[in-house]
């Protein structure tokens, strides 16, 4: 989101652009404006759906209430399977927020014709096709499992970094950051590649050929959201259980 890591590459194919952004200058910060715009739209969709689902809650759910309750149950089961029955409940909101934000962001890039909206520079797209967004999500995961381990074990949590030998300290520290960062690059690469493929096919063969690719993109987008949320919960479980324990990946 903030411009701490930018992609300097540039590709121009008709109306297709990569690496061009609408920048907002706020003090000394340069922010990708189009990422914030679509992120706010995604957040607005999620907040609106939540309000509609809880406004007149029925004992027998239907419509939007049924959809949101299904999503909650899905996230609850996912978190319980990864973290465990005893400790999963406090982490359902975090894992659920990650999953729903990434899921809706990915699908917004696949379903909404953002390119029809003209900007002074750059173009609107899924927030997750910007490396700044996915790295920010990865850093949140890192902070979450540091917090999980420290809140349960106190300073004893950091003993894992010198076990079985202090020589492995640099590798242990690096591992804690490379795992979620690898998730962020995987998510970014898949979403960006999917949007580029669809955009190129639409330009070359605008009618029927892109449709199967778009359907495949929807499936891939959902899988990427599931993988990110699942591994985030698995890393939290690892922090809660200990460095050497097995965890679900």
Automatic annotation (TrEMBL):
Transmembrane intervals: 31-53, 91-111, 131-150, 187-209, 215-236
Lipid bilayer topology: Multi-pass membrane protein
Compartment annotation: Cell membrane; Cellular thylakoid membrane; Membrane
Pfam families: ATP-synt_A
Keywords linked to the UniProt accession: ATP synthesis, CF(0), Hydrogen ion transport, Ion transport, Membrane, Thylakoid, Transmembrane, Transmembrane helix, Transport
Principal subcellular localisation of the protein: membrane
Gene Ontology MF term list: proton-transporting ATP synthase activity, rotational mechanism
GO cellular component annotations of the record: plasma membrane-derived thylakoid membrane; proton-transporting ATP synthase complex
NCBIfam families registered for this protein in UniProt: ATP_synt_6_or_A
Family per record: Belongs to the ATPase A chain family.
Known role: Key component of the proton channel; it plays a direct role in the translocation of protons across the membrane.
Protein name as annotated: ATP synthase subunit a
